[in-house]
């Protein structure tokens, strides 16, 4: 019968394979399937308007998501290690000094040396700004030693939000490529330090690569590709290889070599990870 959902499915077949559908479909019907070309059309319109020198754009084209949040606060302010809490009033200073002396918590802003980390690792209070962890080796050591899921969840949530809002080829009005390169470089260094990839970064790559031109932040993007977690190997063909293949066959020899180098490093990281977690028997 001509139920609305069947009409929508037939219209989808008729769009891509007209020869398969011979019946006449109504001109107006309810939309059941989102157009897969939406992000590409939005990206091309953004480039066209930018080249024509039109008014400033504020539209977000990141996979058809909503408008980006206010950009008044720069992301790199999050990388400065803040006080662990708002304990700065003079009238409470003595009280909180007594609190620290009872070995309950250790303020993270006072953490300066590795021996300090070893002595206070059981009573360390993480900062409110999770981005500061990326550039602090002592806190990265702490993440390696204390497998607290809440810490990773906080970091991944913050990282996912910032990657989406700052991506220079997905957000139309963001043209500061230098800052975004620095951000990606900090993430890559943290992954090398921890010897594991971030799931938020992996999700960002899968979502943004269909819109990537292969040029913007190329070294940083390919470095992040080399740290995709081993657990995601079944999905990597459809989400990663398909998009890289299109760029691979239409780009320069240098780009081809860069992709192959990145995939070689990805294989090495997977092998090292597999050896570490391998059952001794």
Automatic annotation (TrEMBL):
<dbReference type="GO" id="GO:0034080">
    <property type="term" value="P:CENP-A containing chromatin assembly"/>
</dbReference>
<protein>
    <submittedName>
        <fullName>CENPI protein</fullName>
    </submittedName>
</protein>
<keyword id="KW-0732">Signal</keyword>
<keyword id="KW-0137">Centromere</keyword>
<keyword id="KW-0539">Nucleus</keyword>
<dbReference type="GO" id="GO:0000939">
    <property type="term" value="C:inner kinetochore"/>
</dbReference>
<dbReference type="GO" id="GO:0000070">
    <property type="term" value="P:mitotic sister chromatid segregation"/>
</dbReference>
<dbReference type="Pfam" id="PF07778">
    <property type="entry name" value="CENP-I"/>
</dbReference>
<feature type="signal peptide">
    <location>
        <begin position="1"/>
        <end position="19"/>
    </location>
</feature>
<keyword id="KW-0158">Chromosome</keyword>
<comment type="similarity">
    <text>Belongs to the CENP-I/CTF3 family.</text>
</comment>
<dbReference type="InterPro" id="IPR012485">
    <property type="entry name" value="CENP-I"/>
</dbReference>
<dbReference type="GO" id="GO:0005634">
    <property type="term" value="C:nucleus"/>
</dbReference>
